[in-house]
Write a structure and sequence with these properties.
Layout (H helix, E strand, L loop, with lengths): L2 E9 L4 E9 L2 E6 L8 E4 L4 E4 L1 E6 L4 E2 L2 E2 L6 H8 L2 E9 L6 H11 L6 E7 L5 H6 L10 E5 L10 H13 L3 E5 L3 H13 L7 H5 L2 H18 L3 E3 L5 H12 L4 E6 L7 H5 L18 H13 L4 E3 L13 H9 L4 H7 L28 H10 L6 H15 L17 E11 L18 E11 L2 E5 L2 E2 L19
Parallel strand pairs: 1-4, 1-5, 6-9, 9-10, 10-11, 11-12, 12-13, 13-14, 14-15
Antiparallel strand pairs: 1-2, 2-3, 5-16, 7-8, 16-17, 17-18, 18-19
Helix pairs in contact: 4-7, 7-8, 11-12
Length: about 500
């Protein structure tokens, strides 16, 4: 007996058509019209879209950062992702200082044991000694084909140009891709120290410490190195005209360079959000910072013309008021009201949050909650407004991520032989985004009050239903680690 999705509008990266999708076991076995329902469970999809599950290739679950840890993990974070239509993500393993890449991998494998959706890993390299450089090729055997290096966070994660160049050479020789956080960390440090010395400590000054110019400069540097080494480059969380222009120049020159932006950079602004009264702006502190609307329009043009290939989240959420016990309110909503039992079972979640940066913007933990809202917000802002088509929506949020990171066609499409990661999407259903209804372990939502149209009403992963309306059917341990293939295409 299989599951037959009947009379839906099937949406792929290249086409939309009316049809049926038959799933047997964990894979799609037949696509067509008027498929016989005999012996199958039938899901009536009339008036609904059938799309591949979203793939978020930029997340930070249970990440140690800034004196605390991000709240969402491979349990609650996975549940939240699935409610938003994301059935797979790629998280960043962080190499420990002084340790090996495989030391970091062992830590993240342990973190991932409660997995409820499918996942994979990038390797964030923070200490690229000669022995670590020699270790890089062995990652391919682990199904890890992407390295991330930081051009920012001086004295924490930042690597110098020589190290980045060498890493690109090694990655290119092994069919891997290099990802960069592109901001000039040396200049950022000087700007930050000057601002603090002038008494400029509120959250909005985070923006001034990381202006668009240093993002554009670092992006250009990385693009040039990719052209020189022939290493595929993927610039993460791009925010502004300066960085997009640098990427566009590299692509015009034939360099193997690609880029992503994140959903928050289409909507959240410096003036309204980061500049909110008091300490409220801390909720919106991330790096690179959110920009104003003139950069939003640049990003929309870039996703429409193919300069940018992917939309992700950089999901990394923290309590807004960790010192005041928001875990109690969260647990009341999500744990039957018994927050005492919840706290006893999860002592690690009694942790500090954004309040660590009171009086010093540079100490605010960087990161935003977005893994649950990405697809819904992108559909509403992009498809409903006519800025992008449903097929481009699928391409940006599922198909391109699968292709670039070596998982296609198993993931990222509705096709015979693909994993049955399927969204039943209702384009007419309305929803108001709110902390009161989201599933992320966070005491605020950056899209609070946004009224959207178009949401997933059923979510399937490898043929198994995870979400049915407001009902959660997932189970710990059901998420699978997906080993990725090297030599993926440059799109």
């Amino acid at each position: 007996m299989g599951t037959l999705f009947k009379n839906g509008t099937i949406v792929t990266a290249s086409e939309m058509f009316e049809g049926d999708v038959l799933v047997e076991g964990e894979i799609i076995t037949l696509i067509g019209k008027n498929i016989s329902s005999r012996g199958h469970e039938v899901i009536n999809c009339r008036g609904k879209y059938l799309m591949p599950g979203g793939i978020d290739v930029h997340t930070h679950l249970d990440l140690p950062f800034g004196g605390t840890y991000s709240n969402d993990d491979f349990d609650i974070g996975h549940k939240a992702a699935a409610f938003g239509g994301t059935t797979m993500h790629i998280d960043f393993v962080i190499q420990p200082k002084g340790g090996s890449l495989h030391d970091g991998l062992a830590t993240w494998r342990e973190k991932a044991k409660p997995a409820q959706i499918d996942y994979a890993f990038h390797m964030a390299v923070t200490d690229l000694r000669d022995d670590v450089m020699n270790e890089i090729p062995s990652l391919v055997n682990e199904g890890i084909t992407s390295l991330k290096l930081f051009m920012a966070y001086k004295n924490v994660f930042q690597v110098d140009d020589a190290t980045l160049y060498k890493a690109m050479q090694v990655a290119a020789a092994n069919g891997m891709i290099v990802m960069v956080h592109a901001e000039n960390g040396d200049v950022e440090e000087q700007l930050r120290l000057n601002l603090l010395a002038e008494g400029k400590t509120d959250p909005i000054w985070h923006y001034s410490s990381r202006p668009p110019e240093i993002e554009g400069e670092a992006t250009n540097r990385a693009v040039v190195m990719a052209g020189m080494t022939g290493c595929p480059l993927y610039v993460v969380h791009m925010t502004c005209e300066q960085s997009v222009d640098a990427l566009r120049r590299g692509r015009a020159a034939g360099y193997p360079v690609m880029g992503e932006t994140c959903v928050q950079y289409f909507h959240i602004t410096r003036d309204k959000h980061l500049g909110a009264p008091g300490f409220e702006g801390a909720k919106f502190v991330c790096s690179p910072p959110v920009r104003n609307s003139e950069h939003h329009e640049v990003l929309w043009r870039a996703v429409k013309d193919g300069t940018l290939q992917v939309v992700s989240t950089d999901h990394c959420d923290f309590w807004y008021e960790g010192g005041k016990g928001p875990w109690q309110e969260w647990a009341k909503k999500h744990n039957g009201g018994d927050w005492v039992a919840y706290e006893q079972q999860n002592p690690s979640y009694r942790r500090p949050g954004k309040e660590l940066g009171l009086g010093n913007f540079s100490k605010i933990p960087n990161g935003l909650p977005g893994i649950e809202d990405r697809l819904i917000v992108m559909w509403h802002l992009g498809v409903n407004s006519g800025k992008i088509s449903p097929t481009r929506f699928v391409e940006l949020n599922a198909t391109n991520p699968a292709k670039i990171f070596g998982m296609y066609p198993r993931k990222g499409t509705i096709a015979v032989g693909a994993d049955a990661d399927i969204l039943v999407w209702d384009p007419k259903k309305r929803h108001t985004i709110s902390v009161e209804t989201h599933h992320m372990r966070c005491d605020y939502n950056m899209y609070e009050g946004m009224k959207v149209k178009g949401v997933p009403v059923q979510v399937y992963q490898r043929g198994k239903k995870l979400v049915d309306g407001e009902e959660w059917l997932g189970k710990n341990g059901d998420g699978q680690y997906i080993a990725r293939k090297p030599n993926a295409p440059v799109l």
